Amino acid sequence: MKYRDYFQNKVIWITGASSGIGEELAIQLARAGAKLILSARNEDKLNALQDKLENHNQHMVFPLDLANLSNLGDKISQIMEKYQRIDILINNGGVSQRASAYESSMEVNRQLMEVNFFGNIALAKAVLPIFRKQRSGQFLIVSSIAGKFGFHLRSIYSASKSALVGYYESLSMEEAPNGVHVTLVFPGKINTPISLSALTAQGQAHGIMDHNQSAGMPVEQCVQFMLHALHKKKREVLIGRKELIAVHLKRFFPKLFWKIIPKQPAT
Ligand SMILES: NC(=O)c1ccc[n+]([C@@H]2O[C@H](COP(=O)([O-])OP(=O)(O)OC[C@H]3O[C@@H](n4cnc5c(N)ncnc54)[C@H](OP(=O)(O)O)[C@@H]3O)[C@@H](O)[C@H]2O)c1
């Protein structure tokens, strides 16, 4: 996949950069010559990541909590002061769920929507005026296979990920004349620690590395597909292995989908 030149010197803001997919995106994009803004809550992890990245002086650590985005305007000004532009926003930060709709408290439902949906779109809204002024910019939005269909123990997670689809498809149509492009990514099972921090019914961390995760696609490969999609300005991309069949089953053979998929293990 020849995307190396494409990312050279591009200013790319990555959320969820302290772990998993976001961390690997940072590693591969730094290797490709991009200038990175690394965001997540855990500042120590972000600093450690910056230290090990190629050209580490040209990147910036920018801690934030997607559930509590205050003074976003000031933060954007700091980024603009350093780089004078933003080429790509990778809205990747997110949290999963391991509890039924019946058990999950409304507090957990709201918290998950705040992180996965409202925090996500708040960043996009803050960056959009810059993209419009530049008359160019790309959003890479990390939804999930759970944004294509609901699944056991993922009610609000699935809702948050499908909400992103409706929001960004609309934005994409509205902003295309302004040079803004949206790529929606739908990962299946990827080998990251996401199940460890997934929220249980009362908001505790699940704390277990689920089999579905550890047996998933290696994160390095997932990120290669993501960067290829970004480079090619694809509108959407499904990334994963045999679990992706479920998306096609639901579309073309819905009866079969409802027969087979509810029997699949949720962890
Ligand atoms: N792994 C999969 O199988 C899979 C499948 C489909 C979709 N996805 C999506 O891929 C994205 C990345 O997940 P991952 O698999 O890489 O999981 P991960 O390793 O757990 O990474 C999640 C990232 O999100 C950040 N984050 C969580 N809550 C946050 C908050 N309140 N504010 C700011 N940042 C926050 C975390 O950083 P801090 O804790 O430092 O804040 C971390 O950097 C997520 O949106 C996830 O839904 C993953």
Please characterize this protein's 3D structure:
- 46% of the residues lie in helices and 14% in strands.
- By secondary structure, the chain is α/β, with parallel strands linked by helices.
- α5 (106-134) runs parallel beside α6 (155-175).
- The longest helix has 29 residues, at 106-134.
- It is globular.
- The chain starts with a helix and ends in a 7-residue tail after the last helix.
- The structure holds NADP nicotinamide-adenine-dinucleotide phosphate.
- NADP nicotinamide-adenine-dinucleotide phosphate binds at residues 15-22, 40-42, 45, 64-67, 92-96, 115, 142, 144, 187, 189-190, 192-194, 197, 213, 216.
Which descriptors would you attach to this protein?
two-stranded parallel sheet, globular, binds NADP nicotinamide-adenine-dinucleotide phosphate, seven-stranded parallel beta sheet, 46% helix, alpha/beta, 11 helices, 267 residues, 9 strands, Rossmann fold
* Class from helix and strand fractions: alpha/beta
Q: In total, how many beta strands?
A: 9
State the distance separating the first and last CA atoms: 32 Å
Identify the CATH homologous superfamily. NAD(P)-binding Rossmann-like Domain
Fold topology:
Layout: H1 4-7, E1 11-15, H2 20-31, E2 35-39, H3 43-52, E3 60-61, H4 72-83, E4 88-91, H5 106-134, E5 137-142, H6 155-175, E6 180-187, E7 190-191, H7 194-197, H8 211-214, E8 217-218, H9 219-231, E9 236-239, H10 245-252, H11 254-260
Bound molecules: NADP nicotinamide-adenine-dinucleotide phosphate (NAP).
Short description:
By secondary structure, the protein is of the alpha/beta class.
